[in-house]
Design goal:
With 456 residues, the chain is of the alpha+beta class. Helix content is 29%, strand content 38%. The chain has helices at residues 3-17, 28-47, 169-200, 270-282, 297-314, 372-378, 382-403, 439-444, and strands spanning 22-27, 54-58, 61-74, 78-83, 87-107, 110-133, 139-157, 206-208, 213-216, 224-225, 229-234, 237-240, 264-269, 287-291, 323-329, 334-338, 341-345, 348-354, 362-364, 413-423, 426-435. It comes from Lates calcarifer.
């Protein structure tokens, strides 16, 4: 066994063992919501089928059939469901298709033209879509298995010699049924492999969140399909835009989704939030200066009282000089998620400075490990400084969470009626789906409705 093979096998095992920072489950209830949109899309695709011209001769009759058009589809018995370990099944049973086409018939010396209305009945279409993770980490339709069958077809002639030509009906409809059978599956293959895959390619894998950070939503493995759900496991890692190749190891708990009651579930681990905090920390966002009107009067008074002796010894003229605080988080904040809720723990370095007019700032120590008396004197500063840390850093975090980040769903598919559950190490958001766009509009990218809202 070669070293290269062993390395490849070890890499595969390590990749497979990587926990997901974000998981999405689409349940059979969500699939029921999607079924109507899928049915409409399939009807539109089949309506655009282009049928070739038919020419032939039967006894004394010579005929030409042109301008074949599908006028109506009635896919009343359509179903969309999961195929375990494969993907999706779109199944149509005992439905009908109405057509019209133009005839030109020559019989001996008689020439006749007119329209023919036909109906295909007992239309059965069975289409299986195999879903995989592509090389870029996107969801993709890998292949499609299609079987289409029309049980019977009927035609009604109009025109002066309509009744005379009735005996041609079975011959013509047999040919038409054969041609229509040959066109259904290629049309659906093209719709899935080209149109639907093009829509899936618009779902972000790596995208910017703001001017500081981006997020990696690549799938870490193939989707897991069961009779009741489609589960997708995403890396769910934020990154600093100035260090896009920097990667974090995920040691967090792997989220677990157990519910099926709602249409969709989103699970986010502590790694998802910690990577966001780390990315903002790397981008230098968690720091600020508090000066002049930004500083609360009671804190300014407490600082002057604490450092009065030091200022007098340094220069009595600085007693009335403005004071400033520089707060900087000195390590990435850490998230802790429990059944009782979520908390963020952070530490910061605080610098106290006197700002004499026209002179460089004078910095004071905020703590001392040399003097027990000095340390005792600083105890009253702990509470207000902790408050200032909350006032400065927490709003940054809140702004991020209020703004939200895009989730890996197609534009036009939105969460509604969300419910959040806290677990040890992760949260699960259950929601129902609302389509602000039809499937056709999502595929073509026509954005005539509201801007995308698929964010958390």
């Amino acid at each position: 066994m070669s070293l290269l093979f062993l390395f490849s096998m070890l890499s595969s095992i390590m990749a497979a063992a990587e926990p997901a920072g974000c998981k999405i489950r689409i349940t059979d209830k969500g699939l029921d919501m999607l079924k109507f949109e899928t049915q409409k899309f399939v009807e539109e695709e089949l309506s655009n089928i282009s049928m070739p011209e038919m020419r032939g001769k039967e006894g004394r009759f010579q005929y030409t059939i042109t301008d074949v058009k599908i006028t109506e589809l009635n896919l009343t018995h359509a179903d969309l469901r999961f195929i375990p370990d494969v993907g999706l099944l779109f199944d149509v049973q005992n439905s009908s298709i109405s057509l019209s086409f133009h005839r030109r018939i020559l019989y001996w010396f008689f020439y006749d033209t007119g329209n023919i209305n036909a109906s295909a009945e007992g239309v059965n279409i069975n289409t299986a879509l195999n879903l995989i993770r592509d090389d870029e980490g996107r969801l993709k339709i890998n292949n499609i298995t299609c079987d289409a069958k029309i049980n019977r077809m009927r035609a009604k002639f109009s025109g002066t010699l309509g009744r005379v030509y009735d005996f041609l009906a079975s011959f013509l409809t047999s040919g038409m049924r054969f041609l229509l059978n040959q066109q259904i599956c290629p049309a659906l293959n093209h719709a899935a492999l080209v149109h639907v895959n093009s829509m899936l390619e618009t779902i972000p894998v790596r995208t910017e969140v703001d001017q500081y950070i981006g997020i990696d939503y690549s799938l870490i493995d193939d989707p897991v399909v069961t009779p009741r759900s489609l589960d997708m496991h995403f890396r769910g890692m934020f990154f600093d835009l100035s260090h896009q190749n920097e990667s974090l190891l995920n040691y967090a708990v792997d989220p677990v989704i157990r519910e099926y009651d709602r249409m969709v579930y989103l699970a986010l681990s502590e790694f998802f939030f910690d990577s966001g905090m780390f990315a903002y920390y790397r981008a230098g966002v968690f720091q600020m200066d508090i000066i002049n009107e930004k500083m609360p009067k009671d804190l300014e008074m407490l600082l002057r009282t604490t450092y009065f002796g030091a200022i007098m010894m340094l220069n009595p003229a600085l007693v009335d000089a403005p004071l400033s605080l520089h707060l900087a988080v000195n390590s990435p904040p850490k998230t802790s998620i429990k059944t009782s809720g979520a908390t963020v723990v952070m530490t910061a370095i605080v610098k106290v400075m006197v700002l004499p007019p026209g002179r460089p700032p004078v910095q004071f120590k905020i703590f001392s490990n040399q003097s027990a008396l000095e340390s005792l004197a600083l105890i009253p500063l702990q509470a207000p400084l902790k408050t200032m840390l909350q006032m400065s850093v927490v709003p940054l975090i809140n702004n991020w969470t209020k703004r939200g980040v895009q989730i890996p769903l197609a534009d036009g598919m939105d969460f509604i009626e969300e419910v959040v559950e806290y677990h040890n190490g992760f949260i699960v958001i259950g929601a129902n789906l609302h389509f602000s766009k039809g499937l056709r509009e999502m595929i073509t990218g026509n954005n005539t409705t509201q801007p995308e809202t698929n964010t958390i």
